[in-house]
């Protein structure tokens, strides 16, 4: 052992917090709670059980909402020498099958409510159907989903969660796995190589097969410290798990909150009642897509908070309306930007006191930008699209569109089993996000659009984000998505899907008039569809291809 | 360039803060102040000037109080590829000579008030006398030291600070060096190898000769993030520079406060008036030896603070009286422990809410312990003394004495040009502090004694052996022992027991004068006891605990 070197690993954070604050509450989940000593002991127990089943480097998949077992797995799986694969709970059976087979998962842990998906995988056959399943039974399952869920198919899953009952696949209960864990000394909270993989996260690619994004112990450690720094985590932190842990490992927050010895408040599903109950119980921080912000702001339970709450949000810029409404409730909203490939957030819209004096709309415009590299990250760049050899920055004029590229310890090890895609993504020594944006004179980047979401109408580029922001600035609009549809005359035309506030009688004409007052005429959608909700990924990104299909169907009628 | 790796370096922190908060005040120093943009620009200017003078890896020495130039040098010297050697301003000329020669410094920057020391080095001759000197003239010099200093020899130094005037050594003014800096593009805020050296700090060793402790970019980066986390630095931080930057690079705080984009408030000397003026101007954090705590608590200006202040203190546990007095003023005191070899603090006495209910004395006893490894450190151990092969922990009973050993990214690269001492210090894969302590059942360590016989007085390490050697160099002294005794103001003070030659009439005053000619003033014992013989073991080792009892009895009389 070398006296003056330790391989960086977030495992150290749980070792430390359990040693220093053994009796502090680490995890709350309904009626269950764990102290830090218990958290560490559970991680050791699970790790020992896993060690008896897997070889070093094996992938271990989890299909579960934000339950303590998944949080514990963020430590237990790497502690056992494995690589955690946290699956999106909304995936269809064939998607889960693909990931299990691509990752060659040695084990699948599944929440009892998600066994319908697992059954679906079993029915599809193939190697995925042979992966042994460990069933997590969570007493909060019924409580969280409420009466409505009691009749939903998934709620019957616990009954099918008995060992070895479905499709011939070995199934055992999580509790039994732990009970059967071998005794023995604790596993060391350390790794030999800080660049070894810790987790594997599959991107929800809007097109094609999902890619496996490999994270390292070093990257997870540094990003966790960065999150703790920017979110301001300390021992008094009560972090509410509204952001799915399966999304970029919850932006490394399982490790960050643990480093600060704060308290994790778990949550199976983001619904207004339980979220507001948690806020009233002293939650200090939460993260999530703008949807989470809307749910909090629009809830019947909404009221001015006694203690301050900080929401870190990503996926799309929070609308000025939402920011103002949350601010009135005593909530500070911080906007960040990142991707699965960079461990979640990479940039943060750092607040400048000089903005205090700006008119509300100008201030909102500043706040809606994606910002600057975090303390553990590097400086983000916006470069000319396609210029791979010798990346060339676009002018920092806030107008010239380019591709956002990132680099450093925040960037993934690579795409699992896909060296070509990795090489392509890392061309020129920078990770190419595929996101288009501009660089402002103050060094803040702003996302203008995903490359494929630009609408080109009559030869003009229309940023759908710009149009969306214009529409959502109407006080009666809750949510919006703008897409491009083929148009015989203009090549493409913008089409808007709008969710109105409840009881709003807003018409397309009125809304068009509002937008016309804000944008050039060619950007104003001629076609506006009102809808009750927008199809989204679990991470809050609108599924625009579904809207395109919908618009095509509408157009054909 | 690799897309997914950056060598860790604290240089990144200044690059980022200057890019994100260019107009925020980074440094205040009397009537001078620097924004973050100016801070970075000054670092670039100085680095470019240095690049024209030094080769990569060259050592650049600074002899200066906490002035902006030294803070800037913490970035500029490594930016230029050099290694910063920040010298203790209280060192005697022959000590500075030794360090300049051992480090083979290419340049010496000296504050004009410290030119008497530099003149002393010139007079001693040898290679140190040939090191080119750059003179820093600080307009705050007079203001800080007050009227008394105006008549002191050092105050005449600015006059001797004119280029090339003393002892034939090349001297130039800092301002001229900067003016002459070559133009050209900015140097990159990055390094190729994160394990390359960034600074070299000399300790007062036990053998008399100071040892050079090498820090790495990686260690400085991680420790800075750890300091920022534990002290809670953020953009609103106003950090008062009471801790000398020449002590373990101010515990990595030049980099930590910069990472958080807080404001550095510089200070030439720790005096009650200026300190309290700064506190009233909204200082949020400061660090220092218990002396600093005493100065603040005992000042005539002391009053209840409007905004909270956190003091992080080390060197000796703060006394319960001081903690209570500071608490009454609205000051939170946090106790940390470390050594030069571990970048300053390694453990922190983390507060436990369970202590709230303890009686005051029991609580004070808890708070006086050295605590647990910080978030970026490893777990501290207390091991059986002397058991190098296979370190064996002493029982965690709060009673069994052992040696405190530490490891990980907090530990120095090694002793400069002293592989044997490095190997000895790193025996068994752990850094041996030489400090004796106990492990409490709750995992907190407590220092019981300095095995190395170091006296820590006013935050300065005094090697008792060095003082003993100075005393025994007097022809009428036969034997001597120096011990540290608790001191309300200085933490500890050196006390000497001296055996005179028979018939010698040597007085304490004469002996003091002799020692003062050899050592820095703070090392000279104010208390000298003459005795007929020293208590010793059969092997001739002085029984210092018996002397301590004797000194305590003398003091009680």
From TrEMBL, chains A, B:
Keyword Lipid metabolism tagged: yes
Every AMP-dependent synthetase/ligase domain range: 14-416
Keyword set, alphabetical order: Fatty acid metabolism, Ligase, Lipid metabolism
Keyword DNA damage: no
Entry superkingdom: Bacteria
Pfam families: AMP-binding, AMP-binding_C
Family indicated by similarity: Belongs to the ATP-dependent AMP-binding enzyme family.
Record PANTHER family: ACYL-ACTIVATING ENZYME, BUTANOATE--COA LIGASE AAE1-RELATED
Name by which UniProt lists this protein: AMP-binding protein
Organism: Sinomonas cellulolyticus
